Amino acid sequence: MVPTLEWSPEGVRLLDQLQLPAKVEYRLCRDHREVAVGIKDMIIRGAPAIGVAAAMGVALGVKTAQAATLEELRARLPEICETLRATRPTAVNLFWGIERMRQVFEQAAAEPGATPASVAARLEREALEVYEEDIAINRSIGRHGGALLPEEGRVLTHCNAGALATAGYGTALGVIRAAVEAGKKIEVLADETRPYLQGARLTAWELMQDDIPTTVITDNMAGHFLRNGNIKAVVVGADRIAANGDVANKIGTYSVAVLAKENGVPFYVAAPVSTLDLTLASGDEIPIEQRSPREVTHIKDHEITPHDVGILNPAFDVTPNRYVTGIITEAGVAYPPYTESLAAMARKAKAEKA
């Protein structure tokens, strides 16, 4: 699988996911503002990947700040963090990555003999650590989740929660990859995921790279296949999970979850502990990003709706916890009641890291 993003001496290289599957092309970001544009414009997307990109963006912003003193560098940090923070409101990993880097900045700046160069070097190391950790976390999610899938059969996924949405391997698709690596005979049905077509463009492309049998269906076909017994499990990712287990994910996930429960199909969410937002009591408190109407009215440059028709384009919806069979994290699988199990997962992950 081609890298989703890379740190380089010239800056942060982002795989331009707007160009897939037609071509593999990278966008070089030479400062934190260009990283922010890459996140906002969905050149890079997926909650874990956004978190890693944000960490790299902070490191790059500090590296390119050209501050003569630590005081000057500290004065510029808020603008760096706020520029990245203002890109997308729903994926909590964005804010997690920025806050982690801010804390490391303060630790590095407090060291005896610290200089702008030493702080920048420390943040670069931390960003690379975030990158490597994400891949390891995804593999752990895969091991825990792969065991939940059937020995053979079709699995449905919505949007793209694969290597392209992370630093590598993937969350929901990591679960599928791990099951296949364990010898299970899994086929994937990928919802196309309007309006950005992440399922049709990205999920199908990356699974085909791994020779995992994949079939694309339109979003409004999911109910048909869930009802006729063609699907044995649903696995999706998440952009933010509230303390009670309510899950924000790509728009259309809620519909799939309701249909899965109606037809007795287990519905799993795969996400790192960093996607948990235990400060929110329920999904009602999760901010939902509203995106440009053009994403709905156009496919590339071709207008597919009447000109000037009204458009609503929420990027995410919230699936209530009652529809979620289990939440797969690197620390294990959480089951209802989620208020207790998710808090336990967070404590376990923190203890394992320490």
Write the layout of secondary structure elements.
Blueprint: E1 5-8, E2 11-15, E3 26-29, H1 32-40, H2 47-63, H3 70-85, H4 92-109, H5 116-146, E4 152-157, H6 172-181, E5 185-191, H7 198-209, E6 214-217, H8 222-227, E7 231-236, E8 240-242, E9 247-250, H9 253-262, E10 267-270, E11 276-277, H10 294-297, E12 298-299, E13 302-303, E14 316-319, E15 326-329, E16 332-334, H11 338-353
Parallel strand pairs: 4-5, 4-7, 5-6, 7-10, 8-11, 10-15
Antiparallel strand pairs: 1-2, 2-3, 8-9, 9-14, 12-13, 15-16
Helix pairs in contact: 1-2, 1-3, 2-3, 2-4, 2-5, 3-4, 4-5, 5-6
User: Mind describing the biggest β-sheet?
Assistant: 7 strands, mixed
- State the shape: globular
CATH topology of the largest domain, anyone? Rossmann fold
- Whole-number radius of gyration? 20 Å
- Order of H and E elements: EEEHHHHHEHEHEHEEEHEEHEEEEEH
Strand content: 15-25%
Mean pLDDT: 97
Oligomer: single chain
Which strands sit side by side, in order, in the main sheet? 6-5-4-7-10-15-16
Structural class: alpha/beta
Instruction: Supply the CATH superfamily name of the largest domain.
Output: Translation initiation factor eif-2b, domain 2
Poorly predicted runs are none
Distance between the termini: 31 Å
Give the count of structural domains. Answer: 2
Total number of helices: 11
CATH architectural grouping of the largest domain: 3-Layer(aba) Sandwich
